[in-house]
Amino acid sequence: MSTEKSNVRVCVFDSGIGGLPFFKAILEEFPYLEIYYVADDAGFPYGTKSVETIRDILFERIRRVRARLDPDILVISCMTAVLVGLKDLQEAHQAMHIIGAMPPIATAAQETRTRRIALMTTALAAEDVYLDNLIARHAPDIEVIRIPAQDLVDYVEQHLPFASPESAQASVQPYIKYVRDEGVDRIVLASSHFVLLEETIYTLLSKEGIDHVRLLDSRNKVLSELRVLVQNNRWERAASLEKPALKRTGFFLTSDRSPAPSYLTWAHRFGLSLPQLL
Questions:
Q1: How many helices (H) and strands (E) does the chain have?
Q2: Helix-strand-coil percent breakdown of the chain, rounded to 5?
Q3: Helix (H) or strand (E) holding 215
Q4: Does the structure show a pLDDT above 60 at 246?
Q5: Do 278 and 259 form a contact (C-beta atoms < 8 A)?
Q6: Is the whole-model pTM more than 0.70?
Q7: Cα 238 to Cα 243: distance, rounded to the nearest angstrom
Q8: Residue 3: inside a domain
């Protein structure tokens, strides 16, 4: 692929395929931008690694992303990566705008009527000090129940594209017990992978007769930050003046092996070309 830039370029980066709903939302709102997706299949999963290991991985991967794709805007949709490395990456790459998908704890705290919310997280994020600070800042008077669901991250990455609705619901069922038993009415999907289970979770909640619970994720906040960047930099007008072109998208993996079948299936579902190696 030629790296000569003819348009504003956005790259969505994730530990795996969890950021695909973010990619889709950005593409639908900003079809005139170049939008690429990078899944760090070589580093997946982040949630079982140490903070130091994840930080080292992130700096190496983002260096490769800049060398290959040279994005104007980088969206990090993996919330474990955001909690661990966003500020350091922003400091190290000041010439590139970096947006992090922060868990919408403040929104959940404002909306809850039971004053009890749940955070579905990776294993590492559930114990992260930065998450402690977010909760203290945005939900100091709210009961926040952390639900580590690392097995769901692995399930979504490798098995969900081939799973029946019944299988997907069975994977989520143990976590719905927290909702029922703890009386929460807002669930923050604090891992991008869980966004791909949104429909499954709502279906299961409906079957359980739980109709007052709402799921929250970071897509709206990411889109809001992107709108500000595009408008402030006048990229929207510049892009609209360019010659019409085929939609520019691409799917990249960080490993040096052939894509797993699950990645091929996810690419097809989101209208992406076959994955290339970064």
A1: 12, 10
A2: 50, 15, 35
A3: strand 214-216
A4: no
A5: no
A6: yes
A7: 11
A8: no
Instruction: Establish if 248 belongs to a structural domain.
Output: yes
| Domain CATH for 249 | 3.40.50.1860
* Residue 60, φ and ψ in degrees, nearest 5: -70, -45
Together in a domain, 178 and 227: no
CB 76 within 8 A of CB 101: yes
**pLDDT per position as a tens digit, 120-174:** 999 988 888 889 999 999 999 999 999 999 999 999 999 999 999 999 999 999 9
Judgement on whether residues 260 and 196 belong to the same structural domain of the protein: no
Is residue 2 included in any domain, yes or no?
A: no
Give the span between the Cα atoms of 78 and 12, in whole angstroms.
9
Comparing CA positions, the residue from 191, 8, 19 lying closest to residue 97 is 8
Residues 181 and 204: their CA atoms lie apart, in Å, by 15
Q: Is 207 within the bounds of a domain?
A: yes
């990645």: which residue's tokens? Answer: 263
Kindly state the tokens that stand for 152.
Answer: 């769901």
Write the pLDDT tens digit of every residue in 76-117.
Answer: 999 999 999 999 999 999 999 999 999 999 999 999 999 999
The pLDDT > 70 percentage for the chain reads: 94
Any idea how long the chain is?
278
DSSP H helical ranges for 40-149: 51-69, 79-92, 105-111, 129-138
Using H for helix, E for strand and C for coil, what is the string for 150-189? HHHHHHHHHCHHHCCHHHHHHHHHHHHHHHHHHCCCEEEE
Evaluate the omega torsion of the peptide bond into residue 45 and state whether it is cis, within 30 degrees of 0: yes
Q: What domain count does the chain have? A: 2
